[in-house]
């Protein structure tokens, strides 16, 4: 708000922040003022010193700004000024005061001169200021003095009176004008020839006529009217504001015979004073509005001075820190948030050095009320200028803690999805290799004859291959690509039955407590996979309690609402059955808890864990439409929570499979479609030994061509194949063209590749790789004999 070239002092300028609406008016007022304008604070330090003051006193602004105003007064007046200012401060009024006082000023050269002084008072921010309007009245006093010297002869005019810029008028005791100088002609518009002999009341507006009687009464009593401010009317009818000084004129015998009147136009001065008052009022209203806006703003806003002290701060910014507003104002940023000072200070210095804002700088850390929190803010820093100079910093902050938390969850989910895709692809390729190994070893077992050593080696190799197949199933479980056989499950019954078997694994040093809930929802899930998940988690709990402890398993119904789903994007709101597994073990460190579900991640010693147990649990629960979470504190144990969705439809229960010897074929024709040559060769050999007639094709196009010319009873096709048409597409095309054709699908991860074709999964059975010869034989007979 201050003019270029003026330097504000102390903390008051910080209070002027926000008054930009009145800045242009204030600057214009000061720049165009004919009179000197000086602004001081409550300590009498000079804040503003305009160009007119430079001419009056001979000082430049740099020589007086920040100095005590007594610099502009002779020594004897110092004490009087201090008392005068003290009286103003005690009144507490907030309007223009102290109008019409004559004081003595001192120039830089040391000479003194008379000043007409008007004083105004107001507030900016937390401080009070005093505005002085000064005019050199040396010439006017000289005119008064000379007029008094000539008061004995009303009819003679001195050249000074005649040519004075001020209006000098002589009148008799009847109010008739007897003299009228050039200044009066200029001020009022009437020529001397027009006014001499006319009543002075021609200059008075109707509502001011009473003043003439009051003036004459005081003059007859020997009084004097000094600098009386009133309104007079010009010849053109316009009213102007004037300051008048009226002295009596005495004749040679000392008798009062008339009066001399000096009038000065103060219209511009009074307009300036009114504008200043309006500026103050507007500034205060603007500040009040700004305070209201800042108080209700949802984003944090603060103003900071050059020494990094809080000058203003809104409720939102204070709330971020957990402290009230009053605990911030007057304190430095470093004192309030020392933990984040290292992140904030470089931004402050950069803005002050360059004068350019810094936008959306992310900072994080604890707050004054909670140092253990890790919260995040986007903070912007703006230079605040007054008179062209940077006077402080504006800070705007938006908390993004929740957004960063959700982003971290999303990144973790994306990472797990990427790992799942990788492991699923690896498992698929590995299943093809295992299919070749297991298929060949299956056929080799019965061909070693009486060689017991060869038979043992073959059986051991086949057993190892089957364990490898189990390992790939775990990888497929994590990647959510394993085939699930969902059945309706009573959670309490399943947990109770599983604990009877697990008690031997847990040992006598671990106390097991089962707290079943009432009326637990029935869920639809793969029973074997759920049992395996419980086994993995209880085994982990046992390993976390090497010296014994307590394992508690409880069940309950839970409704996961929209708020919970908003915090866990992978969750679908709805009803779930909860299985909670808690131990009193060593717990999981915060820096690794986010990785416990990753495949091959383990904290166990080398050779004591594959790192696939919890990843299998994670994949199984996700593939079942559920949710799994973990909470742990080092030394205080760990809690896993499995949420499985409530079953909404009844699921047909499969009959238990009866293990029998491989069922041979009756020379039916089977078309094998497999892009992996080694796997295709093994399947063809297996089917041939099972007494089937076999055709083979490496892709869907070759299979369709063969089906057009050959009779085929069963299409046995891999799902994942190159060439643009996969096994699902081939099966769909064949079922439309040859409705009697039986179809059997196979894949290393069939569940993932079915996508939206699950109705075909119910129509066409799936044989998961790797499989034994007996599995293939039973599946073929099942679809051929129905």
Concise description?
The protein has 786 residues and is an alpha+beta fold. 40% of the residues lie in helices and 26% in strands. Mean pLDDT is 77; it is low at 1-21, 92-98, 152-157, 477-481 and 750-758.
**Beta-strand residue fraction:** 25-35%
Shape: rod-shaped
Instruction: Detail the poorly predicted runs.
Output: 1-21, 92-98, 152-157, 477-481, 750-758
Q: Radius of gyration from the CA trace?
A: 50 Å
Query: What about the largest sheet?
Result: 5 strands, antiparallel
Specify the number of helices. 26
Strand tally is: 27
Give the fraction of residues assigned to helices. Answer: 25-40%
Strand order across the biggest sheet? Answer: 2-1-5-4-3
Structural class: alpha+beta
**Mean residue pLDDT:** 77
Tell me the span between the first and last alpha carbons.
94 Å
Write up this protein:
With 786 residues, the chain is an alpha+beta fold. 40% of the residues lie in helices and 26% in strands. Strands 2-1-5-4-3 form a five-stranded antiparallel beta sheet. It has a five-stranded antiparallel beta sheet with strand order 7-6-10-9-8, with helices on both faces. A hairpin with a 4-residue loop joins strand 1 and strand 2. It starts with 11 loop residues before the first helix and ends with a helix. Mean pLDDT is 77; it is low at 1-21, 92-98, 152-157, 477-481 and 750-758.
């Amino acid at each position: 708000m201050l003019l270029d070239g003026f330097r504000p002092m102390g903390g008051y300028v910080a209070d002027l922040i926000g008054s930009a609406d009145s800045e242009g008016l204030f600057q214009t007022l000061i720049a165009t003022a004919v009179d000197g304008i000086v602004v001081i604070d409550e300590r009498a330090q000079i804040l503003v010193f305009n160009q007119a003051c430079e001419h009056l006193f001979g000082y430049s602004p740099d020589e007086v700004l920040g100095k005590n105003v007594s610099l502009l007064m002779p020594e004897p007046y110092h004490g009087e000024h201090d008392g005068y200012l003290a009286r103003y401060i005690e009144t507490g009024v907030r309007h223009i005061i102290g109008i019409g006082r004559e004081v003595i000023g001192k120039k830089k050269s040391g000479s003194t001169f008379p000043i007409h002084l008007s004083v105004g008072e107001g507030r900016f921010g937390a401080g009070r200021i005093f505005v002085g309007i000064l005019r050199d009245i040396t010439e006017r006093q000289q005119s008064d003095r000379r007029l008094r010297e000539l008061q004995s002869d009303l009819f003679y005019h001195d050249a000074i009176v005649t040519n004075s810029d001020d209006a000098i008028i002589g009148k008799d005791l009847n109010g008739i004008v007897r003299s009228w100088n050039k200044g009066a002609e200029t001020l009022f518009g009437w020529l001397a020839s027009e006014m001499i002999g006319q009543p002075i009341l021609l200059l008075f507006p109707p509502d001011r006529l009473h003043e003439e009687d009051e003036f004459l009464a005081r003059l007859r009593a020997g009084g004097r009217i000094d600098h009386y401010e009133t309104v007079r009317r010009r010849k053109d009818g316009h009213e102007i504001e004037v300051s008048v000084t009226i002295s009596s004129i005495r004749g040679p015998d000392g008798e009062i015979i008339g009066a001399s009147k000096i009038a000065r136009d103060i219209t511009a001065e009074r307009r300036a004073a009114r504008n200043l008052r309006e500026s103050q009022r507007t500034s205060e209203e603007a500040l009040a509005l700004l305070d209201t806006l800042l108080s209700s703003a949802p984003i944090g806003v603060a103003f900071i001075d050059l020494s990094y002290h809080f000058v203003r701060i809104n409720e939102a910014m204070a709330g971020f820190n957990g402290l009230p507003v009053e605990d911030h104002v007057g304190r430095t940023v470093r004192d309030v948030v020392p933990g984040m000072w290292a992140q904030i200070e470089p931004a402050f210095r950069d803005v002050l050095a360059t004068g350019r804002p810094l936008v959306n700088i992310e900072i994080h850390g604890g707050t004054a009320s909670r140092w253990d929190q890790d919260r995040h803010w986007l903070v912007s820093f703006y230079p605040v200028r007054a008179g062209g100079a940077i006077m402080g910093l504006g800070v705007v902050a938006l908390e993004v803690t929740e957004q960063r938390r959700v982003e971290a969850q999303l990144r973790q989910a994306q990472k797990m999805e990427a790992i799942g895709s990788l492991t699923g692809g690896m498992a698929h390729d590995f299943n093809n290799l295992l299919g070749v190994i297991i298929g060949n070893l299956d056929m080799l077992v019965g061909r070693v004859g009486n060689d017991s050593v060869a038979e043992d080696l073959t059986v051991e190799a086949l057993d190892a291959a089957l364990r490898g197949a189990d390992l790939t199933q775990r990888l497929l479980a994590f990647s959510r690509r394993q085939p699930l056989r969902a059945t309706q499950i009573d959670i309490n019954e399943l947990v109770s039955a599983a604990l009877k078997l697990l008690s031997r694994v847990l040992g006598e040093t671990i106390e097991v407590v089962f707290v079943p809930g009432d009326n637990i929802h029935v869920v639809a899930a793969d029973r074997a996979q759920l049992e395996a998940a419980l086994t993995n988690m209880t085994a982990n709990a046992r390993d976390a309690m090497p010296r014994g402890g307590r394992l508690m398993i409880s069940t309950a119904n839970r409704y996961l609402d929209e708020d919970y789903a908003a915090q866990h994007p992978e969750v679908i709101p709805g009803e779930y059955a909860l299985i909670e597994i808690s131990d009193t073990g060593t717990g999981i460190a915060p820096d690794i808890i986010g990785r416990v579900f990753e495949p091959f991640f383990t904290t166990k010693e080398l050779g004591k864990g594959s790192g696939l147990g919890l990843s299998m649990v994670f994949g199984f629960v996700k593939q079942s439409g559920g949710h799994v979470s973990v909470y742990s504190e080092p030394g205080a144990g760990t809690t896993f929570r499995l949420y499985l969705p409530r079953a909404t439809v009844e699921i047909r229960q499969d009959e238990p499979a009866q293990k029998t010897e491989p069922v041979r074929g009756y020379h039916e024709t089977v078309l094998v479609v497999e892009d992996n040559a080694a796997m295709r060769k093994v399947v063809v050999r297996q089917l041939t030994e099972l007494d089937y007639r076999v055709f083979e094709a490496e892709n869907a196009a070759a299979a369709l061509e063969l089906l057009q010319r050959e009779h085929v009873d069963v299409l046995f096709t891999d799902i994942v194949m190159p060439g643009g048409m996969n096994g699902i597409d081939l099966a769909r095309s064949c079922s439309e063209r040859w409705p009697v054709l039986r179809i059997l699908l196979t894949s290393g991860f069939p569940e993932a590749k079915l996508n939206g074709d699950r109705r075909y999964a119910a129509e066409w059975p799936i044989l998961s790789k790797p499989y034994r010869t007996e599995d293939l034989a039973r599946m073929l007979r099942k679809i051929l004999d129905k």
